[in-house]
Amino acid sequence: MLDKIAIIGANPAMRMIAKIVFSITGSSMYARFLKTEKKALDWLKTRSAVTVKKE
Asked: Running DSSP on this structure, what letter comes out for residue 54?
């Protein structure tokens, strides 16, 4: 299982689909939507996971 999932630049439809998939698979607390690759990498390097959140 993955520790964290960072999604960069997804459009609203893709976000909605991803949130549904994450909820069904139980991985929603390990996913986050971010605007830039730098922010994504910074978040992936942190130790704690957070809930699905748009940044």
From this structure: B
